[in-house]
Amino acid sequence: MRCQFVLTMLVALLFLASGKSFAQSSTSGSNVVSTAVPFLTIAPDSRAGAMGDAGAATSADMNSQHWNPAKYAFIESNMGVALSYSPWLRNLVDDINLAYLVGYKRLDDQQVVSASLRYFSLGSITFRNSIGEDMGQQNPNEFALDFGYTRLLSEKFSGSVALRYIRSDLTGGASFENTESHAGNSFAADIAFYYRNEMRRNRKNSVFSAGINISNIGSKISYTDGETKDFIPANLRLGTAYEVELDNYNAVSFAFDINKLLVPTPNTRTVTDDDGVIVDPLYESDQSVVAGIFSSFTDAPGGFEEELQEINLSFGVEYWYQQQFALRVGYFHENENKGNRKFLTAGAGFKLNVFTLDFSYLFPTQSNHPLANTLRFSLAFDFDDLSKKRR
Fold first, then answer.
1. How many CA atoms lie within 13 A of 165 on its CB side?
2. Do the beta carbons of residue 241 and residue 212 sit within 8 Å?
3. Which CATH number do you get for residue 172?
4. Which structural domain, as residue segments, surrounds residue 279?
């Protein structure tokens, strides 16, 4: 049906926006794992974006809500807000954008609350019916609003829970051939933990940290009143990081993350019925969210080898001079059968009194990549530094 076709095309554009559909069609064994609302998996800020999308175990910053909200327990200031912006897929279109607003407030020495708003605009799209008649323009957009609570569980360990509301409006309520569409809605939760151990070796201060964030555990989403519902991108992120002071002025940190979607793998097996050879559905749409999470570790048609291909790797290095100027580089790797995103990243940060300004740039390893020339900008505001400046 025409409505389903339009929805499919819009969702395909979203898959492309997250980089999940860049696997080349000629690649043997390609079997990309895809979900609805993939904008939830896009790195929203410049710091992690410059470190190859590594952020589960790096030091706490204002954008920890996306990577690991449990890090807020170790953040030094009491209150702050940050705003990030990224023009998206500029090699393809000029009106897709991602904006991210986040803030946190320390309640006491052990508790922190946080919130964020993520808004993804897909620009302007003209809808037409099956005979080519203009049905008007729509502005598809998606947003996610979440609230988090973080608590220090011990001197070195913290935990966090975040609740999220997701709304995805791809058609503006347009109807096609008597089939009505509507915005998709979903509710989800994150569970995160963070470990941070400060040490002193060879007369130098160092920090070892590790983190885990299981995000977007939530209800499926649908854009029509039919029975078809899609999984949202439930995700497992594990990370570790090591920071060391080189001297009184210079410090460097190294970060490594692994990342896996916790949704069923498309079933590419063929089965035969009385009418000939058919292809199984991409996945069992009636499978529950919890069943999908557990089956995601064992359901790949290619067995354990394909399961390993579904793990993405992120590497990042960050250098600070006097905690005022930062340089960052990173690398992100995704198997060619699971999306084929492979890119280098770089960026810098400047801390000027109460403001911190960061930016990052993405360098794909393939030519004509849709993510080429991706820029991210982040501006953070520290209320503690503002109070000190006024005194």
1. 5
2. no
3. 2.40.160.40
4. 2-390
**For the segment 280-326, what is each residue's pLDDT rounded down to a tens digit?**
444 445 788 999 999 999 988 888 999 999 999 999 999 999 989 99
The pLDDT of 219-223, averaged and rounded, is 91
Q: Which amino acid is at 21?
A: S
**pTM for the full model?**
0.87
What dihedral do alpha carbons 167, 187, 379, 384 form, nearest 10°? 140
Which has the closest alpha carbon to 77: 290, 355, 368? 355
Classify residue 172 by its DSSP letter.
T
> Which of 256, 261, 347 is CA-nearest to residue 300?
261
- Closest to 151 in 3D by CA, of 76, 214, 71: 71
CA–CA separation, 183 vs 166, rounded Å? 10
Q: Residue 327: name the closest of 84, 50, 83 by CA.
A: 50
Number of compact structural domains in the chain: 1
- pLDDT value of residue 182: 85
Confirm if 370 and 91 have CB atoms less than 8 A apart: yes
Query: Are 344 and 331 in contact, with CB atoms under 8 Å apart?
Result: yes
Helix (H) or strand (E) holding 67: helix 64-67
Top-confidence residue, 272 or 201: 201
Centroid of chain to Cα 90: 19
Instruction: Please return the burial class of 82, using the count of CB atoms within 10 Å of its CB with bins 0-12, 13-18 and 19+.
Output: buried
CB 264 within 8 A of CB 295: yes
Are the beta carbons of 103 and 146 closer than 8 angstroms? no
27 compared with 203, residue with greater pLDDT:
203
Structure tokens at 282: 């991409």
Give CA separation, 55 vs 9, 46, 152, 171, 265, in Å.
32, 11, 19, 33, 25
Tell me what pLDDT residue 385 has: 60
